[in-house]
Here is the input.
Amino acid sequence: MNKPHFALSVIGAFSLTLLAGCTLEPKYQRPALPVASNWSAGNGADTRTGQDIGWKAFFNEPAMKQLITMSLENNRDLRVAALNVDTARASFQIDRAALLPTLDATAGETSQHLPGGLYSTQTSGPVTYQQYSANLGVTSYEVDLFGRVRSLRDQGLETYLATEATQRATQITLVSEVASGYLSLAADNDLLKLAINTANSQNKSYDLTKRSYDSGISTSQDLVQAETTVRAAQADIAQYTRQVRQDVNALTLLVGTTIPQNLLAGATLQQDWKFPQTPAGLPSDLLTRRPDIIAAEHTLKAANANIGAARAAFFPSITLTGTAGSESGSLSKLFDGGTGAWSFMPSINIPIFDGGVNQANLDIAKDTKKIDIANYEKAIQTAFKEVSDGLAGEATYKDELLARTQDADANQRNYDLSQMRFKGGIDNYLSVLVAQRSLYSAQQTLITTQLAQLNQDISLYKALGGGWKE
Here is the structure.
């Protein structure tokens, strides 16, 4: 083997590799915030945000906390998100490996038997040839002169980081959905209990009205009106029974496994529900704390890198293939002196005419980046809207809940007075029915308002990027 020539070839190949440091990617610039610099409601001066509060500290009710823990272990969407991260990581490793030459070692034997007299220089008898080889070589290594492979590596990295951020966003969504699902079950349990109590009360009123009707005191209209309230309450019992069962089914799907009955039986809003106050921070904090925004920006960076790869396709590409080793007709002499062999096969590809394919690919890459810019800006606008809605709810639900509580109390007093006036013969039974229906409606509204207030606390926590840390 002519070692000096092979060494010069190898040195030249790696010199080209060292020179391949340029890239045709556009310089990345983060788009400006397409939203106001301050929240439309609430105080945004706190430098902390919801992400600084771990989900275990925020969702401190024992049953809810246990359900969330079970969901993080068993939810299938979260498993898929984690596997997507593993897949993206492996794809990035493949893209990164393309920057380095692959070195392969091969060994082989070639045997050939020729009949006698086949060639004029051959002896009269048949001949068997044997050849042994052992080589170390580089196959089809692209010298990245214009950064095409480097840009594909960058694109793979950004795609991996976007997938990783998406996994965090999936977890945040799951945590909030389990918490909201548990609260929905609690509210429907309370509504079912209210409907049962109301139906029992109305059944008693109906029995009294029936006896009064049989005695000739009440009219048939009084009896029919009493019956309508009973039937309405019975229908509500069936409705809320169905909703409770559906709530359990929804929670089971989110959790991903069978839920112990003791975690569901005590679900009610009639306890001291109070989530920690969530500091809003500043709008710009969302850029580094909301996983969906982080994922959108990494996707944008991947599109930016892809433009570099599309631009590099217009320029020549150089591919290197080379081997060095030993060849011998005898296995025992394979590594003896004078058996060295080497080959070096560089090739260059110069684009001349492709029917506009390269230009079309570049146009697609540029348009994809514009789309990803719009998606990134939309993610920021959506986040800003969600946080502003949460802050608006935080500022108003307290007053609404107080008013709903006072309204339910007033309706309770009105119902008690109506019953007293009816029993005293001052009013007819219609006044009692009207007061009873108004009380029932006020109590239902109070429960749904409690649920809405707690859900908005969860929504604000989620909107600020909370639910990822433990």
